[in-house]
Amino acid sequence: MAEETNIVLDAQENSLGKIQMAPEVVEVILGIAAGQIEGVHQMRGTLSSSINELFGRSNHGKGVTLKVIEGKVNADVYVYLNYGVSVPKVALAMQEALKEQLLFMTDLELAEVNVHVVGVVTEKPQNIIDPDDLFSDETPDQDGDQI
């Protein structure tokens, strides 16, 4: 039963046996490649993946779902983008990079890469608080200097 869920790679000149790969492996490959695209803030995760990250376990496949329909591999990628980037340019770069990376690593071709922009993240300046001077009347500026 587990064999039916695995993706079988076509071994062109290899008659030694089958090469199978779990869909989770493809999700990890695509998740890492998507996270490296300029303009991508992070991938959408679930509550359990967020809790796992708090404990230091990273889930590289988060935000990616695969569907294998009639031998064709389709990927849905859910991302948060940085504010100010061109959404179509980032999405197109992501589609091309994911197809290229998966073809390079597994010899699989993606039939579709559907990019779902879940949100846009703005970077807020963080106030740096000196723990030795918690009750100061002065407030630090963006560089941490007192004003």
UniProtKB/TrEMBL annotation:
Top-rank taxon: Bacteria
InterPro entries recorded: Asp23
Family: Belongs to the asp23 family.
Name of the featured protein: Alkaline shock protein
Native source organism of the sequence: Latilactobacillus fuchuensis
